[in-house]
Design goal:
The complex is a heterodimer of chains A (588) and B (82).
Chain A: E1 5-13, H1 17-28, E2 33-37, E3 53-54, H2 65-75, H3 82-102, E4 116-124, E5 129-135, H4 141-155, E6 159-162, E7 164-171, E8 177-184, E9 189-200, H5 221-228, E10 233-234, E11 239-246, H6 256-259, E12 263-265, H7 273-276, H8 286-301, E13 310-313, H9 319-325, H10 327-337, E14 346-355, E15 359-360, E16 366-371, E17 374-384, E18 389-390, H11 402-425, H12 438-449, E19 454-455, H13 456-471, H14 477-494, E20 497-498, H15 508-532, H16 550-553, E21 555-560, E22 565-570
Parallel strand pairs in A: 1-2, 1-9, 2-6, 9-17, 15-18, 19-20
Antiparallel strand pairs in A: 3-5, 4-5, 7-8, 8-9, 10-21, 11-14, 12-13, 13-14, 16-17, 21-22
Chain B: H1 6-15, H2 21-32, H3 40-50, H4 54-62, H5 70-81
Helix pairs in contact in B: 3-5
Classes of the chains: A alpha/beta (588), B mainly alpha (82).
Chain lengths: 588, 82
């Protein structure tokens, strides 16, 4: 069967902040650029980013990019690449001012400059005092960014393919990337997009966890496609969590609730934090509370029919305090947990928020993989930016407001690299391999012909339960080893999923089955990478190895899907222009 | 019951996937329970909701913002109850 071909200079998969920023760079340079997106670009998950975008503008207090760099290196627990971190922090003021010039409606000071608010982890002079570094557009910073960038792209003639799902990466016999195969949802037809360069900006994959703040579209499509095309994934053991999301929903309950006197209870009605943290109790640090909660669940003291969560009790505060000080929380509890906290406790569980790992890139947005003696050889024609990429600036733990910065700085940088590559090295298209797109057709045919298989929703739930139980915030050797075994069993079940609806047009069931094939690659990568790392660093807190071990483990994990093996590569310790920031114990 | 184009109904289902988890959760519940009973007029109104930006849509559904458009007010009421 021949697959129809569409040809562009550059194809971008994903219409969130990173994809749109990269597309703008390409279109404005005169290259014919396509953006493929499962949903309308302004409804990408970037819209959920509220906090702001960090940059050392120094509009409110003295600030320097070197201080921002220090905070980011420290936040990363020394797993971030210092050249990429320097690049991002130095470029930040320019990136924000550029957005301002594009028309992004930032909050302002009376003198007309962009207002900056404080945010956790951002400090002056290497931890001396908090600094106001976050630029925001009310509580809609991500939304404002998407609209601004989308409008600019329309003006620059970027061609949008909306409600198209990319299925697989096309690599030729040299290993170069020459396109991507995609499904047009409206017709159910499959096309090959032939390109001189392909950029993935597909966002995170938080849906591998049962408890996640991520929207349903965050299914790690770029990561799944990369793994199937033989590209390794970097640092997949590192996921950021919030301690209290509504169990079964993922919507966050702010820590302010515990500040007001809310307490956590296990199935026996015990206030278990008194046992773990006799002094601070429920107000112990965020990661400590999250691990304690999960330990209660793992030891069988979880609540509910599946014993998979704990309870956040507020009713003792009385209806007046709840209504006055926590009205939003009451509304969330009623809507998403079905309980009124004035009368009943809220079921809560540590909830996944952000993926630090991803497709390995350098600070130029080029995808780099080991080849011979070179741990970071460029994959010709392949780029990645945003949450799906691992540059790596977030290392083992991301600082708040650095994610929006990541999108625009590395979106632009990757766009520039692509322009340079396409104009200087690609006078014409490399031919598509004869079998281009066959793997995608085979995947769809398998789904259409599968009999005696399982429902997608059931297998997805099994995957989410496994990852949540084995690789969330409480990690130990026994639990991770079990998780590796269990997730590989789930992966076998994913190969036999079945859909009832075999129609072609807007077949959501088929899309969800294809998404699950991406999620499971991320889930397996997460378990295998986490099981191997015998230390505690950033978001990877290992109960049997509680210290950071720079001697052995200051290195990036690389996971290969074809044989589920791991290799490692060094962390970049040489910044671009400043001195190396040597590891210290992280204290706050 | 409605004589709405069945393909359009499938498109609406897909477009109910949003950028914000809170909306995903509300709309998922609504699609499973309530959506199939919508009249043609309500379906048109729901389509119009799907064209809203996610933050505005969520503010309506959460009751944080008043719905001025009478055509939307009714369907938002249904979503609030979902």
């Amino acid at each position: 069967m021949t697959i129809p071909v569409r040809r562009f200079d550059a194809v971008i998969v994903g219409g969130g902040g990173a994809g749109l920023r990269a597309a703008l760079q390409l279109s404005e340079s005169g290259l014919k650029t396509a953006v493929l997106s499962k949903v309308f670009p302004t409804r990408s998950h970037t819209v959920a980013a509220q906090g702001g975008i960090s940059a050392s503008l120094g509009n409110v207090q003295e600030d320097r990019w070197e201080w921002h760099m220090f905070d980011t290196v420290k936040g990363s627990d020394w797993l971030g690449d210092q050249d990429a971190i320097e690049f991002m922090c130095r470029k930040a003021p320019e990136a924000v001012i550029e957005l301002e010039h594009f028309g992004m409606p930032f909050d302002r000071l009376e003198n007309g400059k962009i207002y900056q608010r404080p945010f956790g982890g951002h400090t002056q002079n290497e931890g001396e005092a908090p600094v106001q570094r976050a630029c925001a557009a009310a509580d809609r910073t991500g939304h404002a960014m998407l609209h601004t960038l989308y409008q600019r792209n329309v003006r620059a003639n970027t061609q949008f393919f909306i409600e198209w799902m990319a299925l697989d990466l096309i690599r030729d016999e040299d290993g170069d990337v020459v396109g991507v195969t995609a499904l047009e949802m409206e017709t159910g037809e499959v096309y090959n997009f032939h390109a001189k360069g392909v950029l993935f900006a597909t966002g995170g994959a938080g849906r591998i966890y049962a408890a996640s703040t991520n929207a349903f579209i965050n299914t790690g499509d770029g990561l799944g496609m990369s793994v199937r095309a033989g590209i390794p994934l970097e640092d997949m053991e590192f996921w950021q969590f919030h301690p209290t999301g509504v169990a079964g929903a993922g919507v966050l309950i702010t820590e302010g609730v515990r500040g007001e006197g809310g307490i956590l209870l296990n199935a026996n009605g015990e206030r278990f934090m008194e046992r773990y943290a006799p002094n601070l109790k429920d107000l112990a640090p965020r990661d400590f509370v999250a691990r304690s909660m999960e330990q209660e669940v793992l030891e069988g003291r979880g609540c509910g029919p599946n014993k998979d969560h704990v309870l956040l009790k507020l009713d003792h505060l009385g209806p007046d305090i709840i209504k006055q000080r926590l009205p939003g929380i009451r509304e969330i509890a009623i809507k998403f947990a079905g309980v009124d906290p004035i009368k009943e406790p809220i079921p809560v569980i540590p909830t996944c928020h952000y993926m630090m790992g991803g497709i390995p890139t350098n600070y130029r947005g080029e995808v780099v993989i080991p080849k011979g003696d070179n741990p970071e050889a460029r994959v010709n024609g392949f780029y990645a930016a945003g949450e799906c990429a691992c540059a790596s600036v977030h290392g083992a733990n991301r600082l708040g407001t650095n994610s929006l910065l990541d999108l625009v700085v590395f979106g632009k940088s990757a766009g520039d690299s692509m322009v340079e590559f396409i104009k200087n090295e690609m006078p014409t298209w490399k031919p598509l391999p004869a079998n281009a797109g066959q793997i995608s057709l085979d995947r769809i045919a398998r789904l259409d012909n599968q009999t005696g298989g399982e429902e997608v929703a059931d297998v997805r739930a099994a995957m989410q339960r496994t990852v949540q139980a084995r690789a969330a915030v409480f990690r130990n050797s026994e639990n991770l080893a079990l998780g590796v075994k269990e997730i590989q069993e789930v992966a076998e079940r994913v190969k036999r999923t079945q859909i009832k609806d075999k129609s072609k047009v807007f077949n959501t069931a088929r899309v969800e089955a294809l998404e699950l094939e991406n999620l499971i690659e991320v889930a397996v990568a997460t378990l295998i990478s986490a099981d191997a790392r015998k230390e505690s660093r950033g978001a990877h807190a290992h109960a049997d190895y509680q210290e950071r071990d720079d001697e052995v483990w200051m290195k990036h994990t690389l996971y290969y899907g074809e044989d589920r093996r791991l290799t490692y590569k060094p962390v970049h310790t040489k910044p671009l222009s400043v001195e190396y920031i040597a590891p210290k114990v992280r204290t706050f | 019951m409605t004589d709405f184009d069945p393909i359009e109904l499938k498109r609406i289902r897909w477009r109910s996937r949003r950028g914000l988890l809170e909306l995903d959760l509300v709309l998922e519940r609504f699609l499973a329970n309530g959506f199939d009973q919508l009249t043609t007029a309500e379906l048109f109104a729901y389509q119009k909701c799907l064209d809203l930006g996610d933050n505005d849509f969520l503010d309506y559904v959460n009751g944080k913002a008043e719905v001025d458009d009478p055509e939307l007010a009714h369907i938002i009421g249904i979503l609030r109850a979902a």
